[in-house]
Amino acid sequence: MNRISKEEIKTFFRDNGKNIAKKTGLTVLVLVIIAAICLSIYCVAAYANLRISVDLGSEMQTVQGFGASMAWTFQRLGLEGTDEVKEQSIAMLYGEDGLRLNIARFNIGGGSADENLDDVFPYNKPDFDPDRRAESFFMAENFLDASDEQLKAAFADESNYDFTRDAGALEMLDMALATGSIDKIVFFANSPHYLMTVSGTCTGAEVQQNNLKEEFYEAYCDYILIIVDNLVEKHLSGLENVPEVVISPVNEPQWDWGGEGSSQEGCHFDPEPLAKFYDVFFDKLEAYNAANGTSYECDVLESGNYKFYIDRKDIKEYLEAMSEYDYFDDIKYISAHSYGADDSKKHRDKYQDYIDKNFPGLGISITEYCEMVGGRSDTIESGLLLGNVISRDLTMLSAVDWNWWLAVSPCDYNDGLVYWDVLDDGTQKLSVLKRYYVMGQFSRYIDKGDVRVDATCSDLTGWAGLDYSAFKKADGSVVLVVINNSKSEKNVTVGGLYDYKNATTVCTTGETQTGWNEVAGEWTGKVTLPAQSITTYVLTK
User: Which of 435, 446, 504, 493 is nearest to 470 (CA)?
Assistant: First the structure.
């Protein structure tokens, strides 16, 4: 073995160390230059004067409105709430001084509240929330030992239904309809009636179990059409302006809805069985409308979200399965929820690219969303999360309407617009969080029939933290909603609205707020957005 002398080692490190130092120095210099360029771009994007350009001639979707679900809490609120609390909650949601919601989502229960299920899993779990057990109008107690053929006949017979049931929810529905603000009502079911299911309950015995028996597809259609028609006759027919009626027989079909994690009514469908069920439902609905002179429509899919997955079934598999049937050609839009996507731009881009390539022209309705974290986040950050979700669903997906999950919640969870609490002394009170005011920045000023128009921003990177949307009304006025997610104030010039002279400005920030303070003034096209805020401008000529 040849030995290396100390002098040779010194010479090696002296000669090669210079090269290493040069290369290291060059690398550091390149990184410093890149960092400086990125910092410069960020500073320009985040702090330079910004410009939003509105193109009134570039029309997008026509908005149908905003709503929330009457599920769960409304059952108990109608029975146990004080008159003052019930009236106040309706005013806060649908009244002129409230959110002015024009869409109501009424839950058709699958019967999980029936007493004969009290000792049955999952309803016998000590921690199962009784508010999540929904009452059914079908008098199941008369048919617990019936055969399948007897049940099919029973579900098709109106005399087997009791429409005095679910009285609490129906009282709240009547109060909401009495405001005159509701022009669309969606009757939605989380699960078929439990006597139609494989498990015998409103949840699967196993995860991802196709729980509706195939031989009961037609019976389920009969069941839900009888319920809807009776509710329409008893609660809508006497109204001066009868709302549009939509039926949603399936809700979040891709979720597990079974096994140990069951916590509410829900029914899983794989893509092919769901597509086949809709084929039956559309035939039954068409025949029913023709025979009864009704014009009920079907809300299709109510996908748990519009994300794409690798390890489970997702929305594209359901769309592709349904597209094999003739009824799919008549579907103008499908419904989905924004869970899991939250304010992600990536998921929205991916979904819309897929739709543009495979089903061009197919619209989307956002029928449910809440912030799925515990507690009640009364922060501007939580409020602006909702604002970004709404804004991006409207602009990136061209959603025709947008709906929150629970209109009223009693829970210590971020699922409510209005919170209902019964204190230890029996006193009842209602409260709201920042999200309530953020929702109102849209729902109070964007009406059914308004048309979204295209808008762009000079901040191409998005680093300035702005979200924005613009809408044109039939009378020529314009609504502009701008969100400033940044912790710094922003100066923005708005182009394309030069003919407008007057502006009513409404802003929600992190400061204490008790209402929407509308400030009238002159429109100059130059605005200052407070840090972490959402501002609505109603512009007139």
Answer: 446
Using the structure block, give the residue that is written with the tokens 């000529």: 541
Nearest to 122 by CA among 111, 136, 112: 112
Where b means 16+ CB within 10 Å and e means fewer, 238-249 reads eeeeebebbbbb
Residue spans of beta strands (DSSP E) within 170-294: 184-188, 244-248
What is the rounded CA–CA span in Å between residue 51 and residue 491?
9
> Is 420 a member of any domain?
no
3-state secondary structure 85-117: HHHHHHHHHHCCCCCCCCEEEEECCCCCCCHHH
Q: Please say whether the beta carbons of 402 and 438 come within 8 A.
A: no
Do 339 and 272 belong to one domain?
Answer: yes
User: Which domain-ending residue is among 357, 384, 414?
Assistant: 414
pLDDT per residue as tens digits for the range 221-255:
999 999 999 999 999 998 999 999 999 999 999 99
- Are 54 and 183 contained in the same domain? no
* pLDDT score of 461: 84
27, two tokens: 């690398």
Selection from 185, 16, 182 nearest residue 100 by Cα: 182
Q: In this structure, are 24 and 54 located in the same domain?
A: no
| Total of domains in the chain | 3
Expressed as residue numbers, the domain containing 457 is 48-60+453-540
pLDDT tens digit sequence for 258-299? 999 899 999 999 999 999 999 999 999 999 999 999 999 999
Q: Are residues 216 and 286 in the same domain?
A: yes
Are residues 289 and 167 part of one domain? Answer: yes
| DSSP assignment letter at 191 | S
Residue 443 three-state SS: helix
105 and 42 in one domain? no
pTM reported for the whole predicted model: 0.91
Tell me the mean pLDDT in the region 48-62.
Answer: 94
Question: Does residue 338 have a pLDDT over 70?
Answer: yes
How far apart CA 185 and CA 191 sit, in angstroms, is 19
DSSP string, 497-509: -TT--EEEEEEE-
41 backbone dihedrals φ, ψ, rounded to 5°: -60, -45
